[in-house]
Amino acid sequence: MSGDGDAGIPHGQLLGSFSERANRLVSAPAADDEHEHLASQRVQLRTAFGIAGLVEAAATVAIFNGLVRAADGTGIQLDERVFAVSSEFRDRLGVDDYAGAANTASDAAEAANWHELNAARLFGD
Amino acid sequence: MALTAESDQVAGQPDAVEAGVRALHMARQAARAGVADAGDWTTGAERVAIWRHVRDARTNDLDQRRLASVSPFAVTDKHDADGPLSATDVDVVHRVASDPGRLTRAWADEAMSEIGEERYTELVGVTAIVKTLDGFDEVLGLPTRALPAPRSSAPTRERPDGVGDVGAWVSQSTGPTRANVSRTFSLVPTTNDLWRNLVDSHYSRGAEFANMSWHRALTRPQTELVAARTTAGNECFY
Fold first, then answer.
1. If you measure CA to CA, which chain A residue comes closest to B18?
2. Counting one residue from A and one from B, how many pairs have CB atoms under 8 Å apart?
3. Residues 66-85 in B contacting A (C-alpha not used; CB under 8 Å)
4. For each of chain A's 125 residues, which pLDDT tens digit applies?
5. Which of A55, A104, B76, B220 is most deeply packed, by most CB within 10 A?
């Protein structure tokens, strides 16, 4: 999944492009031209948001590189409520095709009926 | 642009923004020191060795061949044991560091049958911590920091009360939780404390997480855009 739109968010295009490029760098060393692009985007982010904004963007890329390893390394299940409400966009974006989806699949039928199940629990059925 | 430290040059920013960046700096210092110290099931020397292998995984030949393969398990070569780390330890660290999106429960179960679920969990936890620490420096173009000198304290090797099967591959706290990700490393409290402090300072910031309006340099939607692009790039389902 990638894109060059702004998602309707101010400076979204810059933030999205920076995030993808920064994430690739965290995974593997980058070629010189990638370093140059990233350096240019760091300047753009600093101009747009100040040094704190650049630091916050870098911190977010960094911690989510940790979070994906925490989640996938321990095989946690997607929380029931999030599973239920994210069905449409997961399918549209192809997220259900990720290997980690298998960690939640065993409860998929239950989670898909989350609203009904909670109604049943609420009324004691 | 070169930054010398994450807390530099924030003077003059609004107080909440400056405080956030300084908290980030403090948490990162604490994490670097904490990784060099013993955890619950690993020594400081083992944890620093894990850090070295996480760095190696970015370019390691076997990891690159696994990444290029249709299935990472189709490549039959194995990593060797290294110093205080067994071959299984090294394999866990390299796979989690280099290709987390294609791990499987069968593989994790086999690893845990050899090294125990507590040690497995701690290996994953330290990998997540040091990947975060190094990743921040890499993204900002900062020089690679020297690995810390390990401290000689001993791991406690105590399994905490109140953990059990909550549907993950490893035991986690069985009490109420707002999200499964918040109890990921609850089986190994020493590492969990370091990890949660990093998550709090880099992203969630305690009770502020419940607010859709953040007093930071980036708005909540801008931060979530960065987070979404990063998780998508790693093909993380969670």
1. A52
2. 258
3. none
4. 455 677 789 999 999 999 999 999 999 999 999 999 999 999 999 999 999 999 999 999 999 999 999 999 999 987 777 666 666 666 766 767 777 777 775 444 444 443 443 433 333 33
5. A55
